[in-house]
Automatic annotation (TrEMBL):
<feature type="binding site">
    <location>
        <position position="115"/>
    </location>
    <ligand>
        <name>pyridoxal 5'-phosphate</name>
    </ligand>
</feature>
<feature type="binding site">
    <location>
        <begin position="144"/>
        <end position="147"/>
    </location>
    <ligand>
        <name>pyridoxal 5'-phosphate</name>
    </ligand>
</feature>
<dbReference type="GO" id="GO:0030429">
    <property type="term" value="F:kynureninase activity"/>
</dbReference>
<keyword id="KW-0378">Hydrolase</keyword>
<dbReference type="GO" id="GO:0030170">
    <property type="term" value="F:pyridoxal phosphate binding"/>
</dbReference>
<feature type="binding site">
    <location>
        <position position="213"/>
    </location>
    <ligand>
        <name>pyridoxal 5'-phosphate</name>
    </ligand>
</feature>
<feature type="binding site">
    <location>
        <position position="216"/>
    </location>
    <ligand>
        <name>pyridoxal 5'-phosphate</name>
    </ligand>
</feature>
<comment type="similarity">
    <text>Belongs to the kynureninase family.</text>
</comment>
<dbReference type="InterPro" id="IPR015421">
    <property type="entry name" value="PyrdxlP-dep_Trfase_major"/>
</dbReference>
<feature type="binding site">
    <location>
        <position position="116"/>
    </location>
    <ligand>
        <name>pyridoxal 5'-phosphate</name>
    </ligand>
</feature>
<feature type="modified residue" description="N6-(pyridoxal phosphate)lysine">
    <location>
        <position position="239"/>
    </location>
</feature>
<feature type="binding site">
    <location>
        <position position="238"/>
    </location>
    <ligand>
        <name>pyridoxal 5'-phosphate</name>
    </ligand>
</feature>
<comment type="function">
    <text>Catalyzes the cleavage of L-kynurenine (L-Kyn) and L-3-hydroxykynurenine (L-3OHKyn) into anthranilic acid (AA) and 3-hydroxyanthranilic acid (3-OHAA), respectively.</text>
</comment>
<dbReference type="InterPro" id="IPR015424">
    <property type="entry name" value="PyrdxlP-dep_Trfase"/>
</dbReference>
<dbReference type="InterPro" id="IPR015422">
    <property type="entry name" value="PyrdxlP-dep_Trfase_small"/>
</dbReference>
<dbReference type="GO" id="GO:0009435">
    <property type="term" value="P:NAD+ biosynthetic process"/>
</dbReference>
<comment type="pathway">
    <text>Cofactor biosynthesis; NAD(+) biosynthesis; quinolinate from L-kynurenine: step 2/3.</text>
</comment>
Length: 413
């Protein structure tokens, strides 16, 4: 590109970003988060946070809420808070706040433990639901590692075999031996969105139980758990749900399966009568059956406060903006990054795209370090992937233009 056409591409994209930001119905949400100044803001220098697919930004009102939980609820009310501050019922109450964000009616989502622990609970329970005749678990061959490790352990514990299958190949791979299928909704590396309705239907047609990991889709796009008849699902709350580092995960058990959910971790919190202190276990009805032990109240209540930012936000608006952000990023990368320097791993088709863009780049580790030094925060996944996550509640189009411009300068240097 000549110097003149480079300048005109730049000013065109800057102008386009301004127009897109002005028309953005979610733009007011950014002020609800603690972030660096936006590009163009005289308070700059601007930082661009594109790592909300790993750790979501802090909603500004959360520290005050957490301070109240610590000082008053814990410091003053102490043990009374289990009842008076609603600590005991927090896992189901907060589950019901996450439920509409993933397309679930109330009473089916419980919050607690890590995603890894919930993958274990869900997968072993799925195998138990499927019955003795089915001797195989199918796991996403491209899965985030923790699901693969846990599936391997779940298979050994339940005496089933484990087969890793590419999500696209699941319909042809499942059969009357398949007990359960564990899939990631969005691939953590490439940002590829898998076809949840089709793959759930394929698992069901084979008589298998479908278990989904929603870590990279919850809060980023409509999931439609009830609508698509998903059996069990898990997800984290520290990415697009902005619950904070180590915020507890969630577990969805479809209502009509709850009586058959036989937890492999039947702790006292999931007992029908937890304070009965009985030697024999009797599972609670409904979502609380997914609980294990004492909930981590401080993290859980930070998450509860963080969920306030969803007030008045539709997941359709979030999805529309997410696709517009990733489309615009790809357009800017095309304009600013020297040809051949990066290769897009994220599908261009909207139906196959989550809310991140992954670019393959030979020296990705070094490039990401230099981007971060210039205030553009994404992340690096070995061996050669640059990941950029776009959280529609707080990322704007000027951020996107700036990130791609700095990327172009960094890899072009
Ligand atoms: C798809 C997926 N599953 C599971 C996890 C990890 O779960 P946790 O660390 O909450 O157990 C992550 C990210 O950390 C992830 O991206
Ligand atoms: N959970 C994380 C953590 O505790 C530290 C650093 C990163 C994470 C992540 O969430 C990584 C993320 N799941 C990924 O997609 O790579």
């Amino acid at each position: 590109m000549s110097e003149l056409s480079e300048v005109s591409a730049l000013s065109e994209l800057v102008e386009k970003a301004q127009k897109l930001d002005a028309a953005d119905e979610l733009r007011g949400k950014r002020a609800e988060f603690v972030l660096d100044a936006a590009p163009g803001d005289p308070a700059g220098p601007a930082g661009v946070y594109l790592d909300g697919n790993s750790l979501g930004a802090l909603p500004a009102h959360v520290p005050e809420k957490v301070a109240d939980v610590v000082r008053r609820q814990w410091g003053e009310l102490r043990i009374r808070s289990w009842e008076e501050s609603g600590w005991w019922t927090a896992p189901e109450r907060i589950g019901d706040r996450i439920a509409p964000l993933v397309g679930a009616a109330p009473g089916q989502v419980v919050v607690g433990d890590s995603t890894s622990v919930n993958v274990f609970k869900a997968l072993v329970a799925a195998v138990r639901m499927a019955g003795e005749g089915r001797d195989e678990i199918v796991v996403d061959a491209t899965t985030f590692p923790t699901d693969g490790y846990i599936a391997e352990s779940a298979a050994r514990l339940t005496g089933r075999g484990l087969r890793a299958v590419l999500p696209d190949d699941v319909p042809g791979a499942v059969g009357d031996r398949t007990a359960a299928v564990l899939l990631n909704h969005v691939d953590y590396r490439t940002g590829r969105l898998h076809d949840l309705p089709r793959l759930t239907a394929a698992a069901h047609a084979a008589g298998a139980v479908a278990v989904w990991d929603l870590c990279h889709s919850a809060g980023a796009l409509p999931v439609g758990l009830d609508e698509h008849g998903v059996d069990l699902a898990v997800g984290c709350t520290y990415k697009y749900l902005n619950g904070g580092p180590g915020a507890p995960a969630f577990l969805y058990v479809r209502r009509d399966l709850q009586d058959r959910f036989d937890s492999p971790l039947p702790g006292w919190n999931s007992h029908a009568e937890p304070f009965g202190m009985r030697p024999e276990y009797r599972p609670a009805p409904g979502a609380p059956r997914g609980r294990v032990g004492t909930p981590d109240i401080l993290s859980m209540l930070a998450l509860e406060a963080a969920l306030d930012v969803w007030e008045g936000v539709s997941m359709e608006a979030v999805r529309a903006k997410s696709l517009a952000l990733t489309d615009f990023f790809l357009e800017c990368v095309e304009a600013y990054v020297p040809p051949g320097r990066v290769e897009c791993l994220t599908p261009l088709r909207h139906e196959e795209r989550g809310s991140q863009v992954a670019l393959r780049c030979d020296d990705a580790g070094d490039v990401m370090k230099r981007l971060i030094a210039r205030g553009v925060v994404g992340d690096f996944r070995p061996p050669d992937v640059l990941r950029f996550g776009f959280t529609p509640l707080y990322v704007g189009f000027a951020d996107v233009e700036r990130a791609a411009r700095v990327l172009g300068e960094t890899v072009g240097a």
